[in-house]
TrEMBL record:
Gene3D superfamilies xref list: Rbstp2229 like protein (3.30.310.120), Rbstp2229 protein (1.20.5.850)
Tree of life domain: Bacteria
InterPro entries assigned: DUF1885 (IPR015062), Rbstp2229-like_sf (IPR036294)
Protein's recorded name: DUF1885 family protein
Amino acid sequence: MSQNAYIKLGPASEKQVITIEEVKDLLMYYRSITSKTGDQLSWGYSEAAFPYTIEEKKEADHKWFYLKGIDPQKNKYILIGVGEEKQPESEELMNYIQISLTDISTHGDKGKANEFCKFLASKLKGELHLFNGRVMYYYPKK
């Protein structure tokens, strides 16, 4: 059974609308800052921090992509997509990022997906709905 986490972008978020390319750019930024950490430690930390390649299929239509694990023993797949939903109370559209684990995803994938979720939510100041149902708020409180 697949599991999903969501980063919802509300009015207090850094952005209210996000594209799949912007999500890829944020993951590339994550990769670059972790590789700099590795350089400072004289250790190949970037491979441990981001052990994936970014793959996109033609049928994705710029709505989703997947991260494919470099070492199939440790990591398999994480799916990442963007979408929008109507808010029941206001009928306004709210954009979100969805992170999904497949049936063959490993525990390593879930750990990395949680890291990526927290990183993206903190950068975008969004509302993070974790795989376990808990919610973390990264937007500024009024």
